[in-house]
Amino acid sequence: MSGETDARPATSGGATQWSDAPSRDALQLIAEGVTKVAGFGIAAISVVRSDGKLEVMAVAGSDEAGESLKGRRTPIDQLSREIAKADDWGLFRFVPHERLDASAGEQWGWVPDIDPIDDAPDAWHPLDLLTAPLYDDGGVLRGTLAIDLPVDGRRPGEGQRAVLNTYAEQARQAVIVALEREMLSEQVRMAETARRIVRRATAQLSMDRVVEDSREALVEGFNAAGMWLQTFDQDGHGAIYSAVGREIELSPAMVQIAETAARIAWEQQQPAVVAPDRPFGPTITDEQGELILAFLAEIGVQSLLFTPLGAGPECLGNLVLTRVEGAADWTEAEATSALDIGHDLGRAILNARTFEREHQLVEELQELDTYKGQLIATVAHELKNPLTSVMGHLEMLESSPDFSGTTRSSLNAMERGTRRMVRVIDDLLLLSKVGDADNPVIPVRVDLRKIVDEAVDLITVAAGQKGLAVRIDAPDEPVLALGDATELDRVCANLVSNAVKYTPDGGAVTVSLARAEGEVVLTVADEGIGISEADVARLGTEFFRSSNPEAVAQPGTGLGLAIVSRVVARHGGRMSIRSALGEGSTFRVFLPSG
User: Fold this and answer.
1) For residue range 81-114, what is the model confidence (pLDDT) as tens digits?
2) Could you tell me whether strands 141-150 and 40-48 are parallel, antiparallel, or unpaired per DSSP bridges?
3) pTM for the structure as a whole
């Protein structure tokens, strides 16, 4: 067999899988055609690999030769040394065995076991080398066609060489097409891999993580030397995310060129390639292209693939993939895949930007809520001390015998107003306390049955004045919940007092306690005026009062249910409300069982 296919010892190497089956089959057909028509018993086709070696991809004529040769790799420089000694037979090069090194035969992976048919000068020797280097239109070696074992045992004459050159040309075209198809298939496969990884990156909620998760896949998937990603928004604020270990600094002019080109490219759904030997395309002017090429030369980049990023009609940025000198040209398939990824990354940018804005808004709201709580606590504290003094002096004045009935009536009114203000301040202080994350609940076992009894006792007078029937439906033994006794007492008292307040004369209020699946359920049901569906959704909001005129007519601050809601939440419980106008209301509180 010929030298370029046998340049490894028989014990080395192994077959590799050709990724494109149709291309592999086409090479095999060419090899078989040589053996059937051209008058040679063995034909082998090799292709150039990226590591600078020739890999045997097709062998015809001998199963033994095929098993030994397929997948073997030969250094191109070794073949070049042999061809330098060769006779020029058109596309083929012939090296007679007498010109080979004495040790060359020991390196062949497979040498036919034959003897020359005679001593004539044209008798074929088993170490004769006949190979056709296959070059593309640019003069780059892409493969070889090697043949061995002429049927007549003779070195081919002029006529037979012409036939062999025809097959060599066919093999050249087949090898070029096969390599292009293999490269395209590999590019599509890698781009699809990158796309899948990029789609996983869309689940990330920050731009840094989106870029971090997709960078390696993009660079490897597109055989790029590097990448950077530019984002921009309607306010003109954007960022540039570059490869790890290398910061990309774009001048204001370059940033503006990239943004303008990206918006046009997104509108046209057209990526662009910028390279010295290519037109700049519709999204980049010649002047802009020259500026880009000058910038690429400064950073050691030969070409780039420019892809817009966006979601829907909005362009959100651009992706730049780079290649250095000597790398392959960007293909149409790569540009198409990059544009698809531009849609995925665009959605990821939009998601990350939305999340970051929501996160910022939540932080601002939390800061505002904290400030509001601090303000309420401060104002309440500042008001309570002077009100306590006022109440003390009012009590002293009421005990004085010097005041007439009118004056005493005024003092009583002042005392009622002051006590109401104290209750409001106490509610504000409690609301601030139960809303403070730095003041957690220290849970203990609390007997809710005892708390319910005490709450009902407190409203007995008010209920009696309205002729209400207040019933307790609870076990005789203690019903234990985990929590703060004072806060749970306020929950029960607020719910029961509200039920009595908003139930018309002669109605009924029922307070129930039950256990259910590790929880204690407190239920307060009334036959009152009820609450509209719209108002139910807002109950628990500080200072909210129902829009029902009957409810507004009752005194209150709108803090009672806000306190209940916060206490229940900080105890790890939940509350449900069922109500309808004119049909009464039912409040259920679920708390962890003690």
Assistant:
1) 888 889 999 999 999 988 876 555 444 457 787 8
2) antiparallel
3) 0.45
In this structure, the strands spanning 508-516 and 469-473 are parallel
* Residue indicated by tokens 């990603």: 229
Could you tell me which residues are beta bridge partners of residue 141? 135
Edge-first strand listing for the sheet containing 303-311? 239-242, 226-231, 314-323, 303-311, 272-274
Where in the chain are the domains? 3-184, 187-357, 359-434, 444-592
For the four alpha carbons of 178, 180, 183 and 187, in that order, the dihedral sign comes to negative
- CATH fold of 444-592: Heat Shock Protein 90 (3.30.565)
- Cα separations (Å) of 66 from 13, 14, 125? 14, 12, 20
Q: Which CATH class is domain 3-184?
A: alpha beta
CA separation for the pair 267, 37 (Å, rounded)? 56
SS3 content of the chain, % helix, strand, coil (to 5): 45, 20, 30
359-434 and 444-592: identical CATH topology: no
DSSP string for 495-524: HHHHHHHTSPTT-EEEEEEEEETTEEEEEE
Question: Among the CATH numbers 3.20.20.140, 2.30.29.30, 1.10.287.130, 3.30.420.40, which is that of 359-434?
Answer: 1.10.287.130
DSSP states along 180-195: HHHHHHHHHHHHHHHH
> Which residues, 6 or more positions from 121, have their beta carbon under 8 angstroms from its beta carbon?
none
**Under a CB-based contact definition with an 8 Å cutoff, are residues 142 and 135 in contact?**
yes
Do 238 and 231 touch, CB atoms closer than 8 A? yes
Query: CB–CB of 136/176 below 8 Å?
Result: yes
Q: Count the Cβ atoms, other than its own, within 10 Å of residue 169.
A: 15
Q: Would you call 428 exposed, middle or buried from its count of C-beta atoms within 10 A (0-12, 13-18, 19+)?
A: buried
pLDDT digits (tens, 9 = 90+) for 516-570: 888 999 999 998 888 887 787 777 666 666 666 565 556 656 677 888 888 998 8
Q: 10 Å Cβ neighbour count for 111?
A: 17
Instruction: For residue 584, give Cα distances in angstroms to 191, 370, 527, 539, 580.
Output: 64, 35, 4, 15, 6
Residue 101 in 3-state DSSP?
coil
Q: Output the average pLDDT for the chain.
A: 81
